From TrEMBL:
It comes from Acanthosepion pharaonis (Pharaoh cuttlefish). One of its GO terms (molecular function) is zinc ion binding. Pfam families: RWD, zf-C3HC4. This is RING-type domain-containing protein. InterPro entries: RWD_dom (IPR006575), UBQ-conjugating_enzyme/RWD (IPR016135), Znf_C3HC4_RING-type (IPR018957), Znf_RING (IPR001841), Znf_RING/FYVE/PHD (IPR013083). Keywords: Metal-binding, Zinc, Zinc-finger. Residues 45-145 form the RWD domain. It comes from the Eukaryota. Residues 271-325 form the RING-type domain.
C-alpha cells in the first residue's frame, strides 16, 4: 500500500512541478531508499520474533536466520524430516516469500507436490509476516500426512501392481493402507499399518478378508511377515565381505508378494502334472482331497494327488525337482531323503512282483 501511494504521489508531483529527469531520478532514489529501510526494519523485527518462537518448538532446528534467508530443519523421525529454506524477495512483505524444500528421506515427487502447495499458501500472507506461518504450515503437513514416509512405495503400488478392478484406501490419521486386490473370482483384502519410525520398523500386516483356500491364506500371511522382517533385521548368517546391514522399506516387498506373486498369479496357475487349474474356478467350491491344493517351497501349486504320485516315482537322485521351474521340491508331507524314497520304491516294486507271481501261480 505504501509503495502504491508513493507511486501515485510521484506521478502527480512530476506532472505539476517537474519536467527535468534529474529531479525525478533523485526523488525515485529517495523513495527506494525509504522503502528499503522499511523492508529491512520489517525483516529485522520478524527475524527477532522467529528466534524467540523457534526456541520452544519441538522438532524444529533453526539453522540460519539472517536478513537474506531463514533455514530450518523440521524433524518428526529420522526418516520423516526436511529442510525448509525461506528467502525474502526484494519487495517483501508485499510479495510472497520464496520457499525451497529439501530432504534426504522423502521422495522427490512428494517434495514437488508440497512445494507447489507452499507456493500457493504463502500468497495468503502477503503484507504480513510469513516465515512462522509457513513453518507451521509445513510442520502440520508432516504431522497430518503420516504416510508421506512411504509415498513413493504407494505410488509404485498404484501404478505397477494394482489394476482398475482393485481398490486402495489411505488413512493418514491412523497411518494405514487398505488394499483389495483381485484376479478372476478370487480376492484378498488386507491392511498395512505403517509404524511411526518406519522404515526402521517393519509394516504390520492384517488380512481382513479373502476367498482363497485357508492353507494359502496362512502361507500368504506368514511369508509376507517374513519378507517384512528381512527388511529390518540383519541375516542370522552374515556373509564375509557384506556391508553393514541397513534397514530398508518393507511396505513394497510385502505388496509385491501379496499382490504380484499371490493374488494375480495363483488363480491362473495350473498344476505342473495334470495341467489343469489348481484352484477351483468358482470359489468357494468344495473340492475332494485329491484336488486339494499343495504349495511347495518354490511357490508352485499342485493338486494333492498329483504331487503325491509324482513324489513316489523315480528318479530320486538329488531330490525331486519341480517340473515348472527345476528347483528341488520341499514339502512338510514329503520330508524323506532321496535314499529312503529310492528304498521304498524298490521295496514296493519287489512286493508288486511277488503279488504278480502269486497271481500267476494261482491262475
Amino acid at each position: 500500500m505504501l509503495c502504491f501511494s508513493l507511486c501515485l504521489f510521484l506521478r502527480k508531483f512530476n506532472r505539476q512541478h517537474y519536467n527535468g529527469s534529474s529531479m525525478k531520478d533523485k526523488l525515485l532514489r529517495r523513495i527506494t531508499i525509504t522503502m528499503a529501510k522499511d523492508r529491512d526494519k520489517f525483516i529485522a523485527d520478524e527475524l527477532k520474533e522467529i528466534r524467540n518462537q523457534c526456541e520452544g518448538l519441538e522438532g524444529i532446528q533453526l539453522v540460519t536466520c539472517v536478513p537474506d534467508a531463514v533455514a530450518m530443519i523440521i524433524k518428526k523421525t529420522d526418516f520423516k524430516q526436511l529442510k525448509l529454506r525461506l528467502m525474502f524477495p526484494s519487495h517483501y512483505p508485499n510479495e510472497p516469500i520464496i520457499s525451497e524444500l529439501n530432504s534426504k528421506t522423502l521422495s522427490e515427487k512428494l517434495l514437488d507436490g508440497l512445494q507447489k502447495v507452499c507456493d500457493d499458501e504463502c500468497k495468503k500472507f502477503i503484507g504480513n509476516v510469513q516465515v512462522m506461518k509457513m513453518l507451521h504450515f509445513v510442520n502440520k503437513f508432516l504431522e497430518d500426512h503420516k504416510l508421506c514416509v512411504c509415498s513413493s512405495e504407494i505410488a509404485y503400488v498404484k501404478k505397477e501392481l494394482l489394476k482398475d478392478c482393485d481398490e486402495v484406501k489411505l488413512r493418514q490419521k491412523t497411518s494405514q493402507i487398505i488394499i483389495k486386490a483381485q484376479q478372476e473370482k478370487y480376492f484378498l483384502n488386507f491392511k498395512l499399518t505403517i509404524p511411526e519410525d518406519y522404515p526402521k520398523t517393519q509394516v504390520q500386516l492384517e488380512i481382513i478378508d479373502h476367498n482363497f483356500p485357508e492353507l494359502l491364506k496362512v502361507n500368504f500371511e506368514a511369508q509376507a511377515v517374513e519378507y517384512a522382517r528381512q527388511c529390518v533385521q540383519p541375516p542370522l548368517r552374515k556373509k564375509p565381505g557384506d556391508p553393514p546391514f541397513q534397514p530398508k522399506p518393507s511396505m513394497l516387498p510385502v505388496c509385491k508378494y501379496l499382490i504380484g506373486e499371490c493374488v494375480k498369479n495363483y488363480p491362473l496357475q495350473k498344476c505342473p502334472m495334470c495341467f489343469c487349474y489348481v484352484l477351483p474356478q468358482n470359489p468357494p467350491e468344495e473340492v475332494s482331497k485329491e484336488k486339494q491344493v499343495e504349495r511347495v517351497y518354490c511357490g508352485h501349486l499342485y493338486h494333492h494327488s498329483c504331487l503325491a504320485a509324482y513324489m513316489k516315482k523315480p528318479p530320486f537322485i538329488g531330490g525331486k525337482k519341480c517340473p515348472a521351474c527345476g528347483k528341488r521340491i520341499f514339502h512338510e508331507k514329503w520330508k524323506i531323503t532321496p535314499e529312503l524314497a529310492e528304498a521304498r520304491w524298490a521295496h514296493k516294486q519287489a512286493r508288486d512282483r511277488e503279488l504278480e507271481e502269486v497271481k500267476d501261480f494261482m491262475a
